[in-house]
Amino acid sequence: MRRVEIAVTAAATVSLTGVQGVAPALPALQAELGITDAEISLVTIAYVLAAALIAFPVSAFGDRFGERPVIAAALAVFGLCGPAVFLVDSLVPFVALRFVQGAAFGVVLSLSIAAVSHSADAVELARSQRTRLVAMAAGEVVFPIVSGAVLVFASWQWVFALQAAALPIAVLCWWALPAGRPSPVAVTGRNDAPRGGFAGAALGALGTPFGAAVQVPGFVRFFVKFTILSYVPLLAVDAFGMTPLQIAFMIGGSAFVAASVAIFVPWLLRRSSVGGLTLLALVLAALPIALLPATGFVGAAGPALLAALVVASGLGDGLLGVLNNVSASLAAPPGARSAFLGATGSIRNLGKLVAPALLGALTVIMPIGGAIAVVGALGLASTLSVPAISRGVRDAASTAPRPATPPGERRRSRPPGRSPRGDDPHDGV
């Protein structure tokens, strides 16, 4: 693995300690600060809201100054905010600290995609994005366990202090990532500055059919994922009396399946298209969620069916995690890649906010199972975005520069999205 991939994978993975890593500590935090259930939700809302609002404008600096200084600075801010919780003793400064850390989190996630997206080949993009997603899925399983172990021996502040691990990774990124602004030559054959500035070029790309369409699967992925994280456990307890350990294994199993299927996305792309696999991924992610109310009609098999559907949704999540990064990278305008992926990250983070908000509103008028089914139905409706994604990927493949053909040799064509490195199913897996 190249050192750039190692560095950005470590950066993206450590940033997960901001949500998955602190979740077990929230009850202890609530008890010590003496805050209500509504107030404790601000700890997460402030974090995700900052990521949604700030990822786009700050990520644009990656196009102007290069990804290295921006990623390193964001990691440093993230790492310093962790142990800073020892200095706060009330809700308001704590939420302010979480807002700052959430902004850094959003920048790290967006630019860690951009840093390994300097290619016009779908399979090559999938290889680099796969490594990142598999490591993050592993973090989603491991970090809550580590935090739980820390809480056995120490206070909740020490769980947040673990986020200081981002500081040495900031140094690693400064060493590993190339200095200077990334060049669009590899994608366009030119080195032109984008018209209208970096943010303007990114917004212009968002207004195209391809640029707009790729936002839909990214939003839906987190819309479904945070539905599972926030409301499926409530359904599991209310309907079937499942224990916290059973729920943890169910959600952990979904993350494990997501990581496992992500490994094979480059291999799948040699045999199918980005659009076709995106359609499959959306159906796999959303259909099990739409079917969750059926668990109430199978008697004693209900808990097993619920767990099976949640784990099955992980198949779609794993595919979408890689495929949407590939299509978003291909839709990004040359010279404004970081800004575009920052805007994409902001839209994805809105999915994390909308899911609990919409479900909270729906549960006022219908049971939890019905509200979750609505999310699944909306996820299935998002498949309408796939034709525009397919056209955009084909256009990107047809306009990408190809290496010069030596005199006397014929250029061999290959289908869009297929790897030029052969068809060995084990290559890169």
From TrEMBL:
On the tree of life, the source organism's domain of life is: Bacteria
Give the organism's phylogenetic lineage: Bacteria, Bacillati, Actinomycetota, Actinomycetes, Micrococcales
Q: What is this protein called?
A: Major facilitator superfamily (MFS) profile domain-containing protein
Record flagged with keyword Protein biosynthesis: no
- Taking every annotated instance into account, which residue ranges of this chain make up the domain Major facilitator superfamily (MFS) profile? 1-394
What species does this protein belong to?
Agromyces mediolanus
- Transmembrane segments annotated in the record for this chain: 40-58, 70-88, 100-121, 133-154, 160-177, 198-216, 247-268, 274-292, 357-381
Q: Where found?
A: Cell membrane
Composition-biased stretches (Basic and acidic residues): 420-429
